[in-house]
């Protein structure tokens, strides 16, 4: 049997393993992932308008992104029921489809589907991409980069073949990327534009009116969401202007201020696969002198660096903002690694050549793959949210000791706790959630004062602030304790002097 099919089979078996293994083993991350999960479960229950994701029964005015991700999550929640798996499945599926696109494009225009296999391995060797806001997380980014890579591939195929169907598909990818993460959906377009200027074929395509009509239509469809939602959720456009077009771009929020080279440093110093993105520059130089690689390689280079340049100008810098650059740069690096292995194999006499090339690739990927396998096998050790901050799921699972009815008490905003309360309600349990502090906009639309608790109410307490608040007001009788959480009964009001 030829080695190429075996390598492809191994690659996609490995991808399936690292994407699905222990996918629901750890709790939802407290902020973005958990908030999207609340959006999804409320939409799945039919409690929100399909254009307006809700949080705690009100229009979500803090998470202002378009709803494709939430639609996908709501679909899987309806199919599988509430849980971590349906929340994360859209990202996993999007990543698998993206890797399939790599292999397809590599077979068409890069000389071998093995280029796509290596690009896939480079992508999932990125430590950050395999964590929060990545391939295994219930966030926008995996879907976003799938549609962005589709833009890159379809533009290339249109220029190379002249077939208008590819331009239509590129326009569709622009629209879908916009309906996934708004403005970020267009972050690879400037690089694509520069690439069109670089080659004669591209410059000729710039004179084609279909380019502006079809891509303009795609942008119009993407933008249409904002006006459709404004129609049913007045004031939404102003929220978007403050959050996406201003806000984080002009001012660093929540302490996320970093130097301009933050993303370059992040890629090069990646704990698992930094070596691969360090190869981007030599890969680009090598590809420029390979006539059959020059055009696709320069497209990937310009699209990836263009996206990095855009996010680097933002005042707020978060590591997952680099995601749009990962697929095109991974494709460029994968091609370079394939050619290096092929050159080494070609210069090694006899049948040993093939094995020498494979040995080179195995040596390069051994450490990154081992690191990623370690991460996915022990996901609780690598979560960003400390367990002490989100212990609700594991405590609520102790159903023999923690039997409803009860109320989960939180300090104020805690979407992680709200999701697990909603999941318990879906299972038919009488569970409520109350906060001991005030919740202010934009976390919710209208300010929510501290909730009212009652004598004989059974309450789950997991944090010092909630314990102190209730201890100061009620006599507490502990019924069960596990880790940082307790189930208590409010047996009487405490006399306050």
UniProtKB/TrEMBL annotation:
<dbReference type="Pfam" id="PF13231">
    <property type="entry name" value="PMT_2"/>
</dbReference>
<feature type="transmembrane region" description="Helical">
    <location>
        <begin position="112"/>
        <end position="130"/>
    </location>
</feature>
<dbReference type="GO" id="GO:0005886">
    <property type="term" value="C:plasma membrane"/>
</dbReference>
<feature type="transmembrane region" description="Helical">
    <location>
        <begin position="179"/>
        <end position="199"/>
    </location>
</feature>
<feature type="domain" description="Glycosyltransferase RgtA/B/C/D-like">
    <location>
        <begin position="65"/>
        <end position="223"/>
    </location>
</feature>
<feature type="transmembrane region" description="Helical">
    <location>
        <begin position="211"/>
        <end position="228"/>
    </location>
</feature>
<feature type="transmembrane region" description="Helical">
    <location>
        <begin position="87"/>
        <end position="106"/>
    </location>
</feature>
<keyword id="KW-0812">Transmembrane</keyword>
<feature type="transmembrane region" description="Helical">
    <location>
        <begin position="296"/>
        <end position="315"/>
    </location>
</feature>
<dbReference type="InterPro" id="IPR038731">
    <property type="entry name" value="RgtA/B/C-like"/>
</dbReference>
<keyword id="KW-1003">Cell membrane</keyword>
<keyword id="KW-0808">Transferase</keyword>
<keyword id="KW-1133">Transmembrane helix</keyword>
<keyword id="KW-0328">Glycosyltransferase</keyword>
<feature type="transmembrane region" description="Helical">
    <location>
        <begin position="6"/>
        <end position="23"/>
    </location>
</feature>
<keyword id="KW-0472">Membrane</keyword>
<dbReference type="GO" id="GO:0009103">
    <property type="term" value="P:lipopolysaccharide biosynthetic process"/>
</dbReference>
<dbReference type="GO" id="GO:0016763">
    <property type="term" value="F:pentosyltransferase activity"/>
</dbReference>
<protein>
    <submittedName>
        <fullName>Dolichyl-phosphate-mannose-protein mannosyltransferase</fullName>
    </submittedName>
</protein>
<dbReference type="InterPro" id="IPR050297">
    <property type="entry name" value="LipidA_mod_glycosyltrf_83"/>
</dbReference>
<feature type="transmembrane region" description="Helical">
    <location>
        <begin position="271"/>
        <end position="289"/>
    </location>
</feature>
